[in-house]
Each structure stands twice: as C-alpha cells, then as structure tokens.
Amino acid sequence: xxxxxxxxxxxxxxxxxxxxxxxxxxxxxxxxxxxxxxxxxxxxxxxxxxxxxxxxxxxxxxxxxxxxxxxxxxxxxxxxxxxxxxxxxxxxxxxxxxxxxxxxxxxxxxxxxxxxxxxxxxxxxxxxxxxxxxxxxxxxxxxxxxxxxxxxxxxxxxxxxxxxxxxxxxxxxxxxxxxxxxxxxxxxxxxxxxxxxxxxxxxxxxxxxxxxxxxxxxxxxxxxxxxxxxxxxxxxxxxxxxxxxxxxxxxxxxxxxxxxxxxxxxxxxxxxxxxxxxxxxxxxxxxxxxxxxxxxxxxxxxxxxxxxxxxxxxxxxxxxxxxxxxxxxxxxxxxxxxxxxxxxxxxxxxxxxxxxxxxxxxxxxxxxxxxxxxxxxxxxxxxxxxxxxxxxxxxxxxxxxxxxxxxxxxxxxxxxxxxxxxxxxxxxxxxxxxxxxxxxxxxxxxxxxxxxxxxxxxxxxxxxxxxxxxxxxxxxxxxxxxxxxxxxxx
Length: 490
Fold this sequence. Notes:
Elements: H1 2-12, H2 14-27, H3 38-54, E1 66-69, E2 72-84, E3 87-94, E4 104-108, H4 120-126, E5 131-137, H5 152-166, E6 170-175, H6 179-191, E7 200-204, H7 216-223, H8 226-233, E8 235-236, E9 247-249, H9 251-260, H10 263-279, H11 282-295, E10 301-302, H12 303-315, E11 325-326, E12 329-330, E13 340-346, H13 359-363, E14 372-377, H14 389-410, H15 424-431
Parallel strand pairs: 4-5, 4-6, 6-7, 7-13, 13-14
Antiparallel strand pairs: 1-2, 2-3, 3-5, 8-9, 9-10, 11-12
C-alpha cells in the first residue's frame, strides 16, 4: 500500500506543480518589469524550488558524445550490444579514424538504487584509451512479471553471458556492490574453464568481507532480522507500470534513506540554491541542478536481489566463509588462477571499510603474486574512488597500467607501456585548445602482495580471439550515498 500512497500523493500534487511552473514563467519573463525586482526574483526562486522538490526525476543521460584519442576529439555513440529484461549491455563506440588495439573494459555498475549514469565520470575517464562497455540496469518497476524474479543467481548469470559475448580479451571493473557477483562469476567461469573468462578484474570499494572494519552500514544490517527488512522495505509495484505486481525495494524509499543521513546538508544546499537564484548566481544554481538531477533520480531494485544481498553479503558472509552458492554450485574463489586482481580502497570510505575489498586476495589462493595488486587511496571517500579528480589523477593511471600489464601477460594486445596513461581531462583540454593543465601524477609501483549457462561453452584455444560485438568504427582484433534504510544498496 505504501507504493500506492506515494503515487497518489505525487499525482495529487500535479495541479500545484503546474501552477508553480506557470508562475515561474511569468516571474522570469524579462519583458515584465516585476521580473527585475527583488520580489519577482524571490517568487521565481520559490516556485523553482517547489517544482523541483515535488517532481519525479527521469533516468539521466550519459551525455558522453565525444572523447579524446591521441590528442584528437572523436565522436562517441551508445550502442546496445545485448538487451535483457533487467539490463542492457551498452558499448560506448568511438568513431575512430583507424583501428586501435585498446583494452576492453566491462564496467559493472551497481544495482543499488541509482542508475548506471552515476558511473558517468568513470566511463568518461576510461574512454580515451579503452573500449568501454557498461551494465545499464533497468528500473524493476518497468519489467513485466512474466520475466520472472531477478536474484543473485540471475545477476551472476547475466555477467557470464555478457562475457561470452565480449570474449576473453576483456577486463571487468566493479564498484562497490557488484564486486561480490563479479568475483562469483569469475570463480564459476574459471572452474568451468570457460574460454571467455576475463584477463583481469578490478574491485573498487566492494563489500567482499563485511566482517572486517565494520561501518555503520554493516552494523545496521546485523542489528535487524530479515523479516524486518522484508516488512519495512519490500513493496508491490502498482498499475499502470509495466511491472505491476512485482516485489521491489522502491526508489523513493531508497532516496528517503539516502537523504535521511544528511538532512541538514541537503536542506542547506536547497536554501543556498534559493539564494543563488535570487542573487542571479547562475553558475552555482546550474551546479546544484546538475548534482540533484542525478542524485534524485532513483530506480526500484528487484526485491529478491535486495533481500539476498542483505542476507548473504552483509549478515551471513557467505562468500568469505566459503559457502556462497550460485544455483546448485558452490563458488570456489581458489579456482581463479589466471585472472588478474586489483583491489582499490578509499582511506575515508565510510560505506565499505578498509580491508573489506582487500579480503578478496585471501580468497584467491590459486592466484600467483604477479597477478595481484592492491591500492589504498589517501583521503578518498566512497564516491571519490570512481568519480572526481582523485579518481582521474590517482586511481585511473594505476588501474589502466594494471589492465594493460595483465592483458599482455594473457597474450592479448601490444606490450604494456609503463606509466604511459595520461589524464583524459588533460588531453580533452588540450584538444579543445584550452591550454596545458596539470598532468596526472606517475602511479606508484605495484605492491607484491545455479542458474548456469544452458549451453556448454565449446572448447577453444586459449590464444584464440573471437570477434567482439561492435561497429566497424571501433572494432578490435579479438574478442553515496548512505543511510540506515539503504543497507545492501551499495
């Protein structure tokens, strides 16, 4: 009933929202003298804020129409490589003048309340020297009931099927929550000797073992039983949505949880936005809109997957205790012997505590030292691991060099070039003639530290590289958010 009440309230506010828009248009009309007065600007600001806090925010666009390759601007277009009910596999195709042998990266976005567009900065920084693919998860309220449930088993199966499409000349990069299913998928592919398993995986801020250095999120998950989560957070999608009748963890509940942990900060931000509009500070107002257009855009999560994540990852720790089951098969991380593992953690991450991601190294006992690396980023929080200046300048160079090195070790692509990766933002500025910006620092040296595929994967030569799905323009050789109510969402 809570979902129905929420929808009723939203529709009941529609006349007031339309009236606010009409008043705002009048108050901002430059031909009316009142628009240049303090009263007019105050009315315009008030109606703008009211309309924004009562609207529904649609899924944002990635908006990545260009990037820089070898100092030249090239166009980028999104192409759906594989469509599935709960997820689209998207390729960011670069319109290259000639073929390049750049490493491919499958960015596994979190199914955690926000859309995959939250990874926009991650994709943007990778594009200049990588073929980038991403898992674009579908809002569960838009998936019809006849497509069945989506749980951890289905998630892992999706990843295996995507790798069967992309082929072995691919690395996987997971930020936060997908670290667990990515590790499970790679363990199953390794045990099955699937020739399309990736050559490397990068786990960033992932809750692999939440028994280590517990955060407030971990403690809260352990303090409630599963019936409490099921009763409080699982709702039924109402008509007229395509997924009417489906059990979900609603986006509006997640958003309430996101904001509840920082109520004062969000109230201050909207008060400042109101003042910026009155003062005519367009740049600050635009920055506020850009952030909140993304932050307030949320999606429903499949209820089965949410509850399973809470129980198996945060409460019972199935993976680190060696009892994670995917379908009828036990996940054996020690089966991974040739998939490089880089773990990245933020020093100030208050969602995934220090050591929780690094714990993956202890599970991969069959992986040699040359295939491992670990990085702790000083002064970086959870969001900063995959977005912002420190991601571009501190973390990305290390990630890119690791990927190239592991790719060369598997026998794909050209020999790796140490420290050859430049900041995408720097080259973008140069290509646009904006002048030289500060270059990215040289990365530090590496530390030495179920439902399965229905068709058996045909045996293949380990050196073979099947064709990768993609257009001719980019074809290659070979194939924050935190809250007590959002536990398991990140």
